[in-house]
């Protein structure tokens, strides 16, 4: 699936919920399905700067696609990174770099986060795109 198709699926899933309490619960459930990062990558080198809670993200190339794993010490943040991993993992670096993140506004996520969590969300996206830029540079 393309990034845009995955984003549309997420928008559709979130539209099924009546209120934000249900959406938060869904994010928590998504966080429980997150493929966990190997313990060796839970280091300062892999931590996302600017997040209220601890979030670790690791990326590696598999053939010509970037695969991400992640973890967080907070359940909501774990759900947020799970959504981002779902969108961007197993995609070509160029597609990750060129993708937009409008789906975040469409599901209402940013407006329902505290300012520090919203900043953390931006930091997570930035780090994912930085990994993609690094891998794209290697491919060129």
What is the secondary structure topology, with strand pairs?
Elements: H1 3-15, H2 20-32, E1 55-62, E2 65-72, H3 75-88, H4 93-98, H5 102-106, H6 115-139
Antiparallel strand pairs: 1-2
Helix pairs in contact: 1-3, 2-3, 3-6
What do these coordinates show?
The protein is mainly alpha-helical and 140 residues long. The protein has a single domain (3-139), classed as Sufe protein. Chain: A (Alpha-Beta Complex). Helices cover 54% and strands 11% of the residues. It is built from six helices and two strands, in the order H-H-E-E-H-H-H-H. The chain has helices spanning 3-15, 20-32, 75-88, 93-98, 102-106, 115-139; strands spanning 55-62, 65-72. The chain has a two-stranded antiparallel sheet with strand order 1-2. Helix 1 crosses helix 3, helix 2 (20-32) packs across helix 3 and helix 3 (75-88) runs parallel beside helix 6. The longest helix has 25 residues, at 115-139. It is globular, with a radius of gyration of 14 Å. The two termini are 24 Å apart. The mean pLDDT is 92.
